[in-house]
Amino acid sequence: MIGIRRDAKALVERLARGECFRITYRNKTVGEFIPPARMSAVSSDDLAYRVAESAEDLGGGLDARAADALIYGT
Fold this sequence. Notes:
This protein is of the alpha+beta class. The chain is 45% helix and 15% strand. The protein has one domain. The protein has 4 helices and 2 strands, in the order αββααα. The protein is globular. The model has no long low-confidence stretch (mean pLDDT 74).
C-alpha cells in the first residue's frame, strides 16, 4: 500500500513508469490514478482489468501489472 502524503515522490515515479493505482477510503474505491498514456487503453469497467485485479487478490502467480502485460501487450 502506498500512502499519498508520505510516498508522493514514489507514486509519481511509478505512475511515470505506467502503473495504475486505485484510491480507497474506508475500503471503498473513490478514484484511480492512471498515467495519461494508458487512460484510453484501460478503464475500470474493462472486464480484462477486473480479471487482473482478481488474479492479484487471490494470490495467483500474476500481479495486476503482469496480467496487463499479457492481456494488453504492454
